[in-house]
Amino acid sequence: MRYFFPLALCLLFGIQVYAQEDVFLREQTADSLYKEDQFYIGVTYNLLGKQPSGISQSGFSSGYHFGFIKDIPINKRRNSAIGVGLGVSINSFNQNLLITETTRGTMFSVLDRSETSYTKNKFSSYMLELPLEYRWRTSTSREYKFWRVYTGVKFGYVFANQTKFKGEPTNISLNNKDVFNEFQYGLTMSAGYNTWNFYIYYALNPIFNASAKLKGDTIDMNAIKIGLIFYIL
């Protein structure tokens, strides 16, 4: 019996050391593999920049964004990374730019409420998107609530578009007109804490291509999207 307690203490000490080493090894392994692969969901209020004279927005213009971003850490602490993703977005713009189809092609004009009665006038785009980001965050392999700032560029391919006018003298609905720029790109930034993050996108090229003209001038309007984005591990 006199050897029982020393042996028991040695055994307990050995188990404790083994457990601590095991935890340390698991944490080191987790740190070596830690990354922020994420699904994202975003909701934005869409604005039109560089509006031609006479053009104005009305109502709420919305955007919905969904996708996945692959995280590639670039430093030992793994709080800096490059993110490459793939997603889709649906964007609408309510405004007073009327788009019609005539024998001369797609035409643009400005709606005047004093002359035309209408309840809806908007165009929409459906895009495949490729976000490319530099990502900084305060997270660790064990901390899931953290501050983040992600900046980068987003490339988009418009695979479908639609315009709708509801009013007098007749309703107009057009689909997949070639006056939209198929490829669109812009700067992005998202910043926030935990789930809630502010998001902004500023397009670097116009919504419409060079064939879209209003009173003989090219329509250089671009998209500005401001809202919230949610990241889900």
TrEMBL record:
Residues 1-19 form the signal peptide. Keywords: Signal. Residues 33-209 form the Outer membrane protein beta-barrel domain. InterPro entries: Beta-barrel_OMP_2 (IPR025665). This is PorT family protein.
